[in-house]
Predict the 3D structure of the following.
Amino acid sequence: MIEEYRETLEKVPMSLSDPVKPHRICVCVRKRPLNKKELAKKEIDVVTIPGNGALLLHEPKQKVDLTKYLENQTFHFDYSFDEDATNDLVYRFTAKPLVKTIFEGGMATCFAYGQTGSGKTHTMGGDFSGKSQNSSKGIYALAAQDVFTLLRQKRYADMDLCPYVTFFEIYNGKVFDLLNKKAKLRVLEDEKQQVNVVGLQEVPVSSVDDVIKMIERGSACR
């Protein structure tokens, strides 16, 4: 039923050539494909990304007279990425505009939210397959590439800007420094009502490779 319904849809997948809309807050959704375990159990893919920021959730149902039908719910986001979307595509429409904002004197945050196994680490940190990892394919590294590209531009090169990396984990209500042997940290609010992670180690970095090493080092401590 779901496959038959999908064939009736007019899909508009996103591409790198699509324009990026300006947002103060941007909420996106990314669909991951069924994994090997789910396929082995013959589980059903009940999510479709038709494009234009939409996500369809399919729920097969049955009437009292045993007639089967499909109930579809639509959810809307600023952007919706299907299971074929690459990290480069996701980065272009999510974190890339934030790098420019920071260099213009603004503040920006990008985070991934979802249950365990939904693809957060793959999106943000890169390709983690078993014990191997390729952090160069994640949003962290892609953002770092743009940061160092901008730092080399003359208008920023004269400003003596110094990038640093921090990497901490919040687990069971506790905060740990992943770049300092999982040292336990405290989160406090100062007199300006700014939240500070006390004792968090800041590591200076001078290249994308430095950032990737820090990502891999921190990820190994999780």
Summary: The first strand starts at residue 28 and ends at 30.
